[in-house]
């Protein structure tokens, strides 16, 4: 492929082709998940939020599927933090502001966050008693219909040359509770070993949204269980500690 490679993961690679961006999936990637990601992104487009617009879903000559979308030039907040560590607090505040703006929107045709969490709890590999406790906890949490990203972290926010924030990677998008989305972002910082940013991020989110820290904490066992589905052995021990629901009783 003659396109310029932008990013690569174990099962997908992103290329630039002029004003277009191609997200190319591995040959064995689940086709339904690819179609769902493209559908998620088009549904989020309808909210008016600044995200890359989807142009088409196509099959390449080698048989792999690709989502073709608008290319948005800029640097991720993760890159900016790495390049300007003295501005970390400024960039974390930008992250929070973008997330709050996202949570002010809804996209009623997206999947429900609660359904996704219930399914992932079932597939977590946890024992039946723990799964039951998690399902009960989830059922007791307030039901909202806010736009939630599901993988919101500094790598998925692009700051353009003119200072706008563009959010990418909508494969996990749902409508649901904003504090659950926030708990997941906090957990992603913790899993990356960046405890300082995790605490600064959550404190700032709670302050700006007038949300009690204890309320976000109630979501942590649920989001930790959902992360277990990824099957990363290096994460299992720390996730097991978060899943200990008794810790948050």
Question: What descriptors fit this protein?
Answer:
single chain, 249 residues, alpha+beta, five-stranded antiparallel sheet, 10 helices, 10 strands
Tell me what you see in this structure:
With 249 residues, the chain is α+β, with helices and mostly antiparallel strands. The protein has helices spanning 31-45, 77-83, 88-103, 113-122, 128-140, 178-191, 195-209, 213-217, 220-227, 233-243, and strands at residues 4-8, 12-17, 20-25, 54-59, 65-70, 75-76, 146-148, 157-159, 165-167, 174-176. The longest helix has 16 residues, at 88-103.
Short description:
This protein is α+β, with helices and mostly antiparallel strands. Helices cover 46% and strands 17% of the residues.
């Amino acid at each position: 492929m003659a396109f310029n490679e932008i990013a690569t993961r174990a099962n997908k690679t992103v290329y630039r082709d002029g004003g277009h961006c191609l997200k190319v999936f591995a040959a064995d990637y689940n086709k339904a998940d690819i179609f769902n990601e493209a559908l998620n992104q088009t549904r989020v487009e309808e909210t008016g939020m600044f995200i890359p617009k989807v142009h088409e879903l196509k099959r390449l000559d080698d048989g792999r599927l690709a989502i073709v979308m608008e290319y948005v030039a800029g640097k991720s907040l993760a890159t900016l933090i790495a390049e300007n560590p003295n501005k970390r607090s400024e960039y974390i505040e930008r992250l929070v502001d973008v997330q709050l703006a996202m949570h002010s929107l809804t996209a009623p045709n997206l999947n429900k966050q609660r359904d996704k969490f219930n399914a992932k709890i079932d597939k977590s590999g946890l024992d039946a008693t723990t799964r039951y406790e998690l399902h009960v906890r989830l059922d007791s949490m307030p039901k909202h219909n806010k736009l939630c990203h599901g993988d919101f972290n500094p790598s998925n926010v692009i700051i353009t040359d003119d200072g706008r924030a563009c959010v990418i990677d909508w494969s996990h998008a749902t409508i649901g509770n904003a504090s659950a989305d926030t708990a997941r972002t906090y957990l992603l910082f913790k899993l990356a070993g960046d405890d300082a940013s995790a605490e600064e991020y959550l404190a700032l989110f709670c302050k700006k949204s007038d949300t009690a820290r204890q309320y976000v904490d109630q979501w942590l066992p649920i989001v930790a269980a959902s992360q277990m589905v990824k099957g990363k052995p290096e994460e299992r021990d720390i996730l097991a500690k978060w899943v200990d629901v008794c810790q948050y009783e």
